Amino acid sequence: MIRLLTYLICVSAVAAGARDPLVLWYKQPAVEWTSALPVGNGRLGAMVFGGVEDERIQFNEHTVWTGEPHDYAHKGAHKYLDEIRRLLKQGKQKEAEDLAMREFMSEPIRQKAYQPFGDIRLRFPNGKPSEYRRQLDLDTGIASVTYKIAEVEYRREVLASYPDQTIAVRLTASKPGALSFDVAVTSPHYDVTTTAIGGEMRMTGRPADSAIRFEARLKVVAEGGSARARDGHVVVTKANAVTLVLAGATNFKTFRDVTASPQARNAATLQKVGGKTYEAMRRDHVADHQRLFRRVSLELGRSAAAELPTDERIRRFAEGSDPQLVTLLFQYGRYLLIGSSRKGGQPANLQGLWNEALNPPWDSKYTDNINTEMNYWPAEATNLAECHEALFDAVKDLAVAGASTAKEHYKAGGWVQHHNFDLWRGTAPINASNHGIWVTGGAWLSTHLWEHYLYGGDERFLRETAYPVMKGAAQFFVDFLVEDASGKWLISGPSNSPEQGGLVMGPTMDHQIVRSLFGAVAAAARMLKVEAEFAARVETMRARIAPNRIGKYGQLQEWLEDKDDPKNQHRHVSHLWGVYPGGEITAYGTPDVFKAARQSLIYRGDAATGWSMGWKLNLWARFLDGEHAYKILKNLVKPASQKEAGLYANLFDAHPPFQIDGNFGATAAIAEMLVQSHDPRGTSVSLTKVQRGEAGYLHLLPALPPQLSEGRVSGLRARGGFEVDLEWKGGKLATATIRARKTGPLTVRYAGKEVELQAKAGEPIRLGPSL
Q: In the prediction, which pLDDT does 190 show?
C-alpha cells in the first residue's frame, strides 16, 4: 500500500509537470537518437528513448576514445617555419600551404575520436499502451516514461548521479507482480565479452584502434518476484519494482597513462553504493543537481503554447508567441552543462557527453577555433562556475603537451594549441595546412581562466592555476610574433582566420586574442606582484600588435589586407571576436570600430549553422540590439533537417548534424541580453580597475528584445563578483537587486543613465527604473 501511494504521488507530480516550463515532454517514444532525452553526471551519460516494448538507454563514459598516449608534434618542423613565412609574404600562398602539408603538420595528421560505450536494452511483453508520456525534468535531472497497459500504470525513471557516479533506472507498476522483462547490456565495439551471474551483468571490451579498455557492470535489484541470469542477460519475473544500477569505467588515468583497472573502479563504485535504496540515490542526486541548477531562475511569461508537447512547440515557435520556450532553451543549456562537465571529468566535447556513433561528426572531439570555448560561455554568467573546472584541468594538460609543439614547430618557449585536441591532448596542427595551422587556440582557452577569476575573484586560483597557464601561452607569442613589412606592427603568422581564406600572415582574430591574453597576463602579474619585467614586456608588445582596421566597405577587416567580400556569408565571424567573447570593441569605448564590426555582421547575414547562430545571438546582444538578437533566435528555434540548422525534437542544436555548442551559445546570449559587465568605458569607472577587481560595472537590460517585454531573472553573475536579480515590465526595468562579493565602487548603467554606488559585501543594493 505504501508503495502504491508513493507511485500515485509520483504520477500526480508528472501530471502537474505538464504545466511546468522546465519540462521537455512528448506523446511518443523516440525513434531517432536526436529525439531521445539526455541525462549525465559529467562522466557517465545516457540517452533515454522511452520505448514501450523495447527500451533503449544508450550510454557513454567520458574516456572511451580511440587512440593511445601520443605526442603529435612533428619533430623538427620549425626548420621550415621561416620559408613558410617568406612564401606567404611573397604572396605565394599555395606554395606555402603545400610546404606546410609536407613538413609542418601533426603526426599523424588526424586526431582520435570519442566513442559510444554501450546500451541497456529492456524488452517487455507485447501490449497496447495508452496515456503515454515521455519527459525530462530539468529541475530534478530525471528522465521518465509513464503509460498504461490493461489498466496497469507503468513508470520508469532514469538519472545519472554525480554523488554515486552511476546511472540508475527505476521501474514501478501500480499492480504487484506486474513487472516482467529481459535486461541486456550490449556494445557496438568488437572484442566484447558479456557475462551474467545472479542479478548482475558485466561487459568488457575495447574500441578499435585504442589503448582504452572498458568495463560496465549492471546490477539488477528486484523487489518481489525474481531476477535471474540467463545466457548473458538477466530475466526479471513478476516483480513489484526493479532498480538497475550501472557503473562504467576505463583504464584511463591521464593523457599519458592508461594503467588503471576498470574492474577495480567499478567494484569500488558499487561497493560505495552498497545497499543504498533508490529513494536515497534519487534524493542525493536531486540535491546535488539542484544545488547548481536552482541558482538561476528565469521567467519570461506564458502563452497557450506552453501546454503543447516540446516537439510541437519547436514547430510553432516562429508563428506566434511562446516566451516560455525561450526560458526552457535557456535552462536546457544550463542543464546540459551540468550534465556534461563536472569536476574530475573531461570537458564537454562537440556533443557534450553524448554520442552513439563509432565515426561521429568531426570525431566528437574538441574544436578550439570556436566550439570548445562556446561550450563554456554560460559557465560564469549563469552561475555554474564549478562546471568550468573540467575545462581548466584539460587546459593544464594542453600546456604540457603544447610545450612540445611550441618547441618542435616554432622553436618557441611557452605552449601552443592549434584548432583541435582529443583525449590524448594533441596540440599540433591537424587535417590541412589551410585551416589547421591556427595558433591561438591555447591563447583563447587561457582567457577562460582569466574570466573565471574576474567573475569569482579567487586569488589563490589566479596565482596557482590561471597565471602559470596564461603566462606560458603568452610566452609562446612573445617568441612567435614577427614584424610586418613596415616594421611598425607585430603580427601573427603563419595562421588563418578560422576555416576560410587559407594560410596567411596577420589574421585579425589572432591579434584580438593575443592582445586580450597579454592584457590579462600583465594585469594578473601586477595584482599578484610577480614578474614585473615580463608584465612590462608583454604590455610593450601588446601596444605594437597590428590594430583593428576599417575597410573600404565600412567593415572590420578580417585580414591585414582589405580583401573582405561583402557577399561572403561564411559561418565563422572570427574577426568579431573582439566584440564577443572578447571585449576590446565596444559601443562606448571604440564607437567607430564597433560600427564597422556591426557592418561586418550585417554582411554575414542572419542564416547560419546552429552554433554560428549561437555566436550571432551573443554578438547582436553586444551590439545592444535585442530585436535583431531575437530574430536570430527565431531562426534557431525551428525543426532541424539534414540540410538546415535548427533544433532537434529534444532541443539539441543542429549544425546540422548535432553539435551541442549552439545550445550553450543560446543560453549565454539570453543572459547577455539581460546583464553585461565588460564595458565600463564612457563612465567614470576605470577599465583597468574593473579588470583588477577593484571596481564593478553593470549594464542592466542592455539588449532586451521587445518580444520578451515582461519577465524576471535571479542569480545571474557579473564580472567583479556580483550577482544580479532583475524584474522588468512593459520592456522597462522595474527593480534590480545587486549582491556584491566584496566592498568597492560600482557603476550601474541602464537606458542611458548611470549611477555610482559603493557596494558593500553582504548588503544587497536595490534599484528602481530611475536608478
A: 84
Transcribe 108-160 into DSSP letters: SSS---B---EEEEEE------EEEEEEEETTTTEEEEEEEETTEEEEEEEEE
Residues 342-345: contacts with CB under 8 Å, at least 24 apart:
342/41, 342/42, 342/43, 342/162, 342/386, 342/387, 342/389, 342/390, 343/42, 343/386, 343/389, 343/390, 344/42, 344/43, 344/390, 345/42, 345/43, 345/62, 345/390
Yes or no: say if 30 and 38 are a contact pair by the CB < 8 Å rule: no
Cell readout for 590 is 571604440
Instruction: Determine the pLDDT at residue 547.
Output: 98
Any idea which residue has 529534444 for its cell?
Answer: 650
Spell out, as residue ranges, where the chain has pLDDT lower than 50: 1-19
Find the angle CA(545)-CA(547)-CA(551) to the nearest 5 degrees: 145
Nearest to 208 by CA among 66, 304, 48: 66
Q: CB under 8 Å, gap of 24 or more: what pairs does 479-484 form?
A: 479/406, 479/410, 479/411, 479/412, 479/413, 479/414, 480/410, 480/412, 480/416, 480/439, 481/514, 481/541, 481/545, 482/85, 484/546, 484/560
- The one-letter code for the residue type at 702 is P
pTM > 0.85: yes or no: yes
Burial 198-228 (b: 16+ CB within 10 A, else e): ebbbbbbbbbeebbbbbbbbbbbbbbebebe
* Helix axes of 591-604 and 610-622: crossing angle, nearest 10 degrees: 150
Looking at residue 5, its pLDDT comes to 36
Dig out the grid coordinates for 308 from the structure: 503543447
Q: Which three cell numbers stand for residue 153?
A: 500504470
d(CA 606, CA 569): 9
What's the CA gap between 407 and 75, in Å, rounded?
Answer: 9
Query: How far is 624 from 676, CA to CA, in rounded Å?
Result: 10
The single-letter code of the amino acid at 172 is T
Cβ-count burial of 16 within 10 angstroms (0-12 exposed, 13-18 middle, 19+ buried)? exposed
Strand ranges in 648-695 using DSSP code E only, listed in sequence order: 653-654, 675-676
Q: In the block, which residue shows the cell 593544464?
A: 396
Query: 653-654 and 646-647: which strand pairing?
Result: antiparallel
- Of the candidates 397, 386, 394, 400, the residue with the CA atom closest to the CA atom of residue 347: 394
Residue indicated by cell numbers 603580427 = 491
pLDDT at 686: 63
**Alpha-carbon gap, residue 220 to 193, rounded angstroms:** 18
Would you say 280 and 288 are in contact if contact means Cβ atoms under 8 Å apart?
Answer: no
H helices of 481-585, in order, are 508-528, 532-544
Are the C-beta atoms of 129 and 152 separated by less than 8 Å? no
Residue 270, Cβ neighbours under 10 Å: how many? 18
